[in-house]
Specification:
Order of helices and strands: EHEHEHEHEHEHEHEHEHEEHEEEEHEE
Distance between the termini: 36 Å
Shape: globular
Number of helices: 11
CATH topology of the largest domain: TIM Barrel
Helix content: 25-40%
Largest sheet: 6 strands, antiparallel, barrel
Strand order of the largest sheet: 10-11-14-13-12-15
CATH superfamily of the largest domain: Alanine racemase
Structural class: alpha/beta
Number of domains: 2
CATH architecture of the largest domain: Alpha-Beta Barrel
Radius of gyration: 21 Å
Amino acid sequence: MKIDDLETPVVLIDEQRMENNLRAMQDICTNAGVELWPHVKTHKMVNVLRRQLELGATGMTCAKIGEAEALLPAGVKKVFVAHSIVDPRKAKRLKALSAQLDELILAVTSAGQFDLLEKLLSQVALKVSVLMAVDTGLNREGVRSLEDAVALHRKIANSKWMTFRGIYTHEGHSYGAPDPEAAQTMADRVYARLVEMAKAVGGEVPLWPGCSVTAPFMAGKPGVVAVRPGAYVFNDLSLCESTGIRNYEDAAVTVLVTVVDKPTADLALIDAGTKVFSSDKSRSGISGREITLRSIVMEKGNEEHGYLRGEELDQVSIGQRLRFVPAHICTVINLTSTVQVVRGDEVVAQWDVEARGCSV
C-alpha cells in the first residue's frame, strides 16, 4: 500500500527516522555507561518498546499502572512508575504487576504521599524499590528543600515495604530553553540541585534525571545511573523548533491531512482538529507545522477542523494533502488507535497503540 492510498487524517511513523532516533539515544547511554529507561507515555506501543529493549534499554518508565500492564507483551522486566500512587484500590494491581517483573520501582514524592503508599503496600505485603522525587524547577512533585529531603529519606529508610533506590526528577521546565546552549545550562543547574540533594541524604546516591531535552547532557555526569527520556523516539515541534535540540529531519511522526476548504486566500481548513492534534501548542503558539512548506502552520483547531495560515498558502488548494509535525507528540499518539508505519512512499505496517487511554 502507498501513502496515497490512506484516508485522512492519519498518523504516520517514518520507520527509518524512528530507528535513527532510537539508536542515537541508546548510543549516548551505552557510551556513557548509563541505563536507558525510556518513558513510554510518548509512544504507548508494544512494537516500539520491544525495539527499545532490543537496542539495549534496561527497563521502561511509565506514568500509570495501566501503561505497564498494556505493554508487558513487549517483554519488559523492569518498570518504574513515575507517578504519585496513593489510591489503595491499586494495591492488587501493583502486586500482580510486580509478580510479572524482575523489578518494580515506585515513586515517593512527598511525606504525605509516602504515608499513603506505605499503607497501600502493607495491604498486599508488597516490597518494592522506590525513587525519591526532587523538584528541580518544574514546581510539580518532589521535595523542595534539603530538610524535607533528609526527612523523607529517613522515612523511606525506616519503611518495612520500601527500599531506597535513588532520587529522580522531571525537569520538564527545560522545554523552555530557547536553544541547545540554554538547554545545557539548564541541565547543569538541574544536575547541581540533584547532587546537592544527594549529598544531603547520604552522598553517593544514584541519580535518575528525566527528559529528552536534558538526557544527552545528563548521560555521563558523575552519579547519573539512568535517564528517562520519552519524546526522543519521535520528536516534535518542542524539540525540533522551540528548543532546537533536534532537527526537522529527526521528526519521525507526521499527521497526514487533507485541505477540505479555503474560505479566503489567507485561510485553509483541514480535516484534523483537536481530536487529532490535541489542544497542546508549541511555545510559539501553533499546533503543527507543514514538513515541507514550513511557513504553513496550524494556528488553531476546533474538534474536527484545523486552521492553516502562512505565506505559502497560495500554493495550497482544496483536496491537497499535507503532512504536519505536531507541537506535542505524546498527546497526538494517545488520541489515535493505530498508526501507519511508512518507508518512503510505502506503508509497511500498521501498529496498534496498545496503551492508548491508559490513564488509570
